[in-house]
Design brief:
Helix content: over 70%
Shape: rod-shaped
Distance between the termini: 146 Å
Number of helices: 3
Strand content: under 5%
Length: 191
């Protein structure tokens, strides 16, 4: 099957050569007809060239093209893998950035909540302390008032007794003195 294809290719290539040779002869004014020797030499030369090309150059060229194709396919596959890896890495970093933004918002919200809770605790402690101070101050004031009242009562009783002792002998009888002192002591005693 290969041989008839070669012969057919040679014939197809020889046809233009025959036409060219005829035209050249016509142009030079030489003898009419086909220069068979020149045509045969050109055909043999073409056959040898095609044989050398097919036998030596074609396998090398075919191997080079196959290797080149394999190298290019490998490079394309490697580039595709690198592209997928880069896209996966980019997607991973994007997810991390998105997650980081959410984490930062969460931390910020938590910090705000912690600050508000601490503020509320401080205010509650301050209110408790203020209430305790107010109660202590009220108890101290009440105690001071009681002490002052008792001191005042004692002083008033002492002064009244001194006045009564001075005036009583002059104006009162001993029975009146006894009665006044009893009434006064009753009034001064705490109720």
């Amino acid at each position: 099957m290969k041989r008839p294809g070669i012969a057919l290719a040679l014939a197809a290539l020889a046809m233009p050569a025959v036409a060219l040779a005829a035209k050249v002869e016509e142009h030079h004014g030489g003898a009419h007809g086909v220069p068979w020797a020149k045509l045969a030499f050109s055909t043999i030369n073409l056959g040898i060239f095609l044989y050398i090309l097919r036998r030596f150059a074609w396998p090398v060229l075919r191997n080079w093209v196959a290797e080149r194709r394999t190298a290019i396919a490998g490079a394309l596959a490697q580039a595709e893998r690198a592209k997928r890896e880069a896209e996966a890495l980019r997607a991973e970093w994007q997810r991390r950035l998105d997650r980081l933004g959410g984490e930062l918002e969460g931390l910020l919200a938590q910090a705000r909540g912690d600050i508000a809770a601490e503020r509320d605790q401080i205010l509650a402690a301050a209110r408790r302390t203020a209430e305790a101070i107010r109660r202590d101050a009220q108890r101290t004031a009440e105690s001071e008032i009681r002490n002052a009242q008792e001191a005042l009562r004692a002083e008033v009783a002492k002064q009244a007794l001194a006045i009564a002792e001075r005036l009583a002998p002059q104006r009162l009888t001993p029975a009146d003195q006894q009665r006044f002192v009893a009434e006064f002591v009753q009034q001064v005693e705490p109720r």
